[in-house]
Amino acid sequence: MATTFYPPQRTLMGPGPSDVSPRVLAALGRPTIGHLDPEFVTLMDEIKGLLQMAFQTDNQLTIPISAPGSAGMEACFVNLLAPGDKAIVCQNGVFGGRMKENVERCGATAIMVEDDWGTPVSVDKVSAAFAAHPDAKVLAFVHAETSTGVESDAAALCKIAADNNALSIMDAVTSLGGIELKVDEWGADAVYSGSQKCLSCVPGISPVTFSPKAVEAIQNRQHKVQSWFLDMQLVMGYWGGDSKRAYHHTAPVNAMYALHESLLMLEEEGLDLAFERHMFHHEALVKGLEAMGLNMLVDQSCRLPQLNLVQIPEGIEDAAVRSALLSQYDLEIGAGLGAFVGKAWRIGLMGQACYQENVLLCLSALDNVLAAQGANHERGAAVAAAMAHYDTVQQ
């Protein structure tokens, strides 16, 4: 017989979801009201404004989609591509591959620009792709690749798209709230993210923003959007600026309370301070990992502070380490994906997971678990190196 489910209290330091603040969890428990209630409509407008702050945009079509980041991705592609279109798709990890899938399911052709996993998207290769395919309608790329912990030059890529009269689609699932993201300044046309990464909200919501140029393209479509649920012209009837809202779907009301609270916390901290916090604790983590003899697999010049790709030492069993961390320390870190399966761990420092106590817990737990597996490293060196970083800055 089924009984009430009580989850364990974990520390989430994988690629997402991240730890959720008690403030956000408390917001979930507030009384449910109708999705067309005037008070909820007021909240919707506040959420849109807070998302504009987070995305650094004035785009009017800036909303949370009532589904996870994958739905945000699909919304961008199905609204901006039609059968017969060409899209240049950059792949340097798992999620570029998912972009390719979306392009093809729209009946469009994907022109692939491929780079090694663990390296950024090549700006030169993208320029060459446009030279070979000047009729490409869209450039799609991942800003912060969750599978590898690599940041690509979003500003340069958006400029190439604009210079070639193409629209840019940017995956910002792992970047929003963790590193600089300037939608308007960079000229990005369609950007999607997720609630469960650096925003530290509950999973299941995808913030998106569309530029005026993208909105014009949507309004001038000759083919119906293949997804009724994700058709932005329909969704805007519900999330539009007028006080009167047309019913489209029942929004996840309580989840929107949570998103609102997480965005309030980001606004209270300030974007620049949030970015500095992620970098500060990332530096402490890296110093500790390297003191333990572990190697970072991404060059420092393009390394994400919020998602750290760490090489698994020779002779150490990947799954056994992650299982021991979970069972003995209630600590979750991520496995490698694609080219890095069994070769790397992904350690997240996202949002509420990005604090000193989590860094020290992770380093101490890894120290003990690796020692139990026979790793040859100096015990205690990791925590000492991280503390030296903290002490130097705090002094």
Written account of the structure:
By secondary structure, this protein is α/β, with parallel strands linked by helices. The protein folds into 2 domains: 22-267, Type I PLP-dependent aspartate aminotransferase-like (Major domain) (Aspartate Aminotransferase, domain 2, 3-Layer(aba) Sandwich), CATH 3.40.640; 270-394, Aspartate Aminotransferase, domain 1. It has a 7-stranded mixed beta sheet with strand order 2-10-9-8-5-3-4, with helices on both faces. Strands 11-14-13 form a 3-stranded antiparallel beta sheet, covered by helices on one side. Strands 1-12 form a two-stranded parallel sheet. 49% of the residues are buried. It has helices at residues 22-28, 38-55, 69-80, 94-105, 123-132, 154-163, 183-186, 212-219, 232-239, 253-269, 271-291, 318-329, 356-372, 381-394; strands at residues 11-12, 61-65, 86-91, 109-114, 138-142, 144-145, 150-151, 167-171, 190-192, 206-210, 307-311, 331-332, 334-335, 344-348. The longest helix has 21 residues, at 271-291. 43% of the residues lie in helices and 14% in strands. The mean pLDDT is 96. Helix 1 packs antiparallel against helix 10, helix 5 (123-132) packs parallel to helix 6 and helix 11 packs parallel to helix 13. InterPro entries: Aminotrans_V_dom (IPR000192), PyrdxlP-dep_Trfase (IPR015424), PyrdxlP-dep_Trfase_major (IPR015421), PyrdxlP-dep_Trfase_small (IPR015422), SP_NH2Trfase/AEP_transaminase (IPR024169). It comes from Pseudoteredinibacter isoporae. It is an enzyme of class 2 (transferase). GO terms for molecular function: alanine-glyoxylate transaminase activity; L-serine-glyoxylate transaminase activity; L-serine-pyruvate transaminase activity. The modification N6-(pyridoxal phosphate)lysine is found at residue 197.
